[in-house]
Amino acid sequence: MSNPILRVENLHVNFNTYAGTVQAIRDVSFDLNQGETLAIVGESGSGKSVTTKTLMGLNAKNAVIPENSRLLFKDKNLLELSEEEWQHVRGNEIAMIFQDPMTSLDPTMKIGQQIAEPLIKHQELSEKDALARALELMKGVGIPNAEEHINDYPHQWSGGMRQRAVIAIALAADPEILIADEPTTALDVTIQAQILNLMKQLQKQSNSSIIFITHDLGVVAGMADRVAVMYAGKIVEYGTVDEIFFNPQHPYTWGLLNSMPTTDTAEGSLQAIPGTPPDLLEPPLGDAFAPRNSYALAIDSKEEPPFFKISDTHYAATWLLDERAPKVTPPAQILKRWARWEELQGQEA
Amino acid sequence: MVKYILKRLALLIFTLFLVITATFFLMQIMPGTPFNNPKLTPQMIAQLNKAYGLDLPLWQQYLHYLVNAFRGDFGTSFQYQNQSVSMLIGQRLPISAQLGAQALVVGVIAGLLMGAASARNKNNKIDGLLGVVSTLGISVPSFILGIIFLYLFGFKWPLFPVSGWGDSFSQSVLPTLALAVTPAAVVTRFVRSEMIEALSSDYVQLARAKGLSEKEVVNKHAYRNSMIPVLTLIGPMAAGLLTGSTLIENIFSIPGIGQQFVSSIPTKDFPVIMGTTIVYALMLMVMILITDILTAIVDPRVRLQ
Ligand SMILES: Nc1ncnc2c1ncn2[C@@H]1O[C@H](COP(=O)(O)OP(=O)(O)OP(=O)(O)O)[C@@H](O)[C@H]1O
Ligand code: SF4
Ligand SMILES: [Mg+2]
Known about the structure:
- The complex is a heterodimer of chains A (349) and B (305).
- Chain A is α/β, with parallel strands linked by helices.
- Chain A has helices at residues 48-56, 83-89, 111-122, 127-140, 146-149, 159-171, 189-206, 217-223, 241-246, 251-258, 332-348, and strands at residues 4-17, 20-33, 37-41, 63-64, 70-73, 76-77, 94-97, 177-181, 209-214, 226-231, 234-240, 308-311, 314-316.
- Chain A has 2 domains: 4-224, Rossmann fold; 242-305 and 318-348, no CATH class.
- In chain A, the strands form 2 sheets. Chain A has an 8-stranded mixed sheet, sandwiched between helices. In chain A, strands 1, 2, 4, 5 and 6 form a 5-stranded antiparallel sheet that branches.
- Chain B has a domain at 92-253: MetI-like (MetI-like fold, Orthogonal Bundle), CATH 1.10.3720.
- Classes of the chains: A alpha/beta (349), B mainly alpha (305).
- Chain A binds chain B through residues 56, 58, 83-84, 87-92, 95-96, 98, 100, 103-109, 117-118, 121-122, 153, 155-156, 166, 169, 173, and chain B through 201-203, 205-214, 216, 220-221, 224-225, 228, 298-301, 304.
- The structure holds adenosine-5'-triphosphate, iron/sulfur cluster (SF4) and magnesium ion (MG).
């Protein structure tokens, strides 16, 4: 059943800066299957946006990607593309929805034209046909009275409507992969739900794959099929949504889940993860999370943990899963989740 | 839009009235009198004062001036007798305006090109070189450039005539260039920073994510957005250039309005001073009005308010 449309293998991204080399992405590998939504979650600075920009070939000029990194998409390694070949991929095969709809549309261009642009570029439609198609797309993303608004400028629209326009732009050329980098963070909660629903519905129609970036596990549950948890430029745990939510194994995932409000969390029991992420100019030896981890073992500051397999779909990089490690008791909230996991397993059996 | 323009025109007339009033009374504070030729006898001076209405109480002079000015009569020059101020300005302003317009066009176009080149090559050699050039352009006054150009291209390598006006276009080349350098430098810097901002904006990122080439991104999105703020800069710059540069006109012996303004001050040629000041103020306000209208045309955010 798994049919990866994109394979990321051993991705490293370094940035040359005056202060030294920032190791923003440190050996990230993952697959994206046809038609699935993969969520990448992690705190600010964990490398989520750098990952997405790398997938679009839009990294800052000071980025250096070592040769053994591979981004395999349709039998080609994206990292070997020329700028011209990239232009064929961008907006056509892989498209992106940006975070802030207030700033991501050109304030001096009519919205209809902005939606038509990728069509003119990739499908070589005439301006007239492209605008006709733009109108359909506007209707498709739920813009009311689209005919009257095709010649509007962005400042005439609300944030939610603008994000719909940004989605229409991304979908214009019918891409195989849609990357959404925190697409709803800038919107208020009700609009957020509308936009997420819209994305799900559109995905069903087109069977495209989505990489959904967020620092908020709360929105992941209803959106994603699988989740990858990122910390300090690495993926530390990945699995299906249920596995990550109800059988989390990495203490960092525990921390993220504990800092997420749910319907049954007692007021005041929410806890942010103490401490700050490491300096990526000089990532620490061993597990980068060790200094913030109250379960840390002696080995953690010396050697990096490998991925331990929990199930065919679920892996976590923490020494706690090593058979020699002492058994630890996770926080109460996580124990509750584990109990729920037992229930779910029981139901399935 | 029409309503907006009418409102602005009304404001313009009111401002003009304030300028006239302020200049009129400030001139009275200037020491000395217009008729200080030692050959003039006191009787002759009294006669002249009478002829020009300078013997009347100040408020009457002011009212007379105001009424006449709004009828389009700015009086006659003290210095060049029997020449009306309107005629004097009418002869000289077009010369200055042509020179200024040439300098403006050359300067702005050069600035747009250099600014964009600088921004697109941010922090490399081209940018560095253009940075030095524009810093020099801003800090060296145009009359010094005028003298340098005059020496280099007028005497050392005599490519262009060194003085005069109206006999051939080539006479205007050196003064145009001398005047164009400062605006070119100012526009370069401005366009550079606006363009750098535009190129790192989210909408340009999105344009790139659509698969547009860098050239399309710049031409379709970055340029237009960085042009809008530049327009506001060009208005006052145009007014300054079109009203003539005193020093450049003197260096190249160009019979423009700047040259005449200077000679009217020590001779206390009140009507000429007044007339020229009014023209300057009017030009400035008209240019600002025009840029505001242009901004409204290219910037949809302003247009629809
Ligand atoms: N051009 C650059 N030069 C140097 N360092 C960079 C550059 N771009 C990103 N970084 C660094 O890479 C790391 C990862 O950044 P990234 O933007 O991917 O974080 P993120 O996970 O998207 O965070 P957020 O939730 O805040 O968006 C950060 O430490 C950041 O400072
Ligand atoms: S490897 Fe060690 S430091 Fe890292 S998460 Fe596991 S226990 Fe904590
Ligand atoms: Mg980010």
